[in-house]
Amino acid sequence: QVQLVESGGGLVQAGGSLRLSCAASGRTFSSYAMGWFRQAPGKEREFVAVISWSGGSIDYADSVKGRFTISRDNAKNTVYLRMPSLNPEDTAVYYCAAAKTRQSTLGRYRRADIYAYWGQGTQVTVSS
Predict the structure, then answer these.
(1) Residue 38: which pLDDT band, with cuts at 50, 70 and 90?
(2) Which residues, 6 or more positions from 23, have their beta carbon under 8 angstroms from its beta carbon?
(3) Which among 111, 103, 122, 126 has a CA at the least distance from the CA of 22?
């Protein structure tokens, strides 16, 4: 069992930045791939980024590629999402998730249904 707690959300102006953190409980954090998803009002939850258990493989949604950075610190059981140059379209509740089962391709981690554990979410609001 893994418990995930996100933090770092808030209200920022367009062009501003935030760094989200997701702290995980349990000794097996380093064996999980960790993903970030987001859900805007009236929209489905969408993939943002994923990082493999070692940090050696990373994937981003096209909407954030080149702008957001995912990283992890296995010694601290924490995964991060650095979000510079925010725009109003980034407004959403951001969730971190842990995937217990290794996937054959990195692309499969874009699917929400392969993640076994989810945090409660943290609100990010970007004003124009």
Answers:
(1) very high
(2) 4, 5, 7, 76, 77, 78
(3) 122
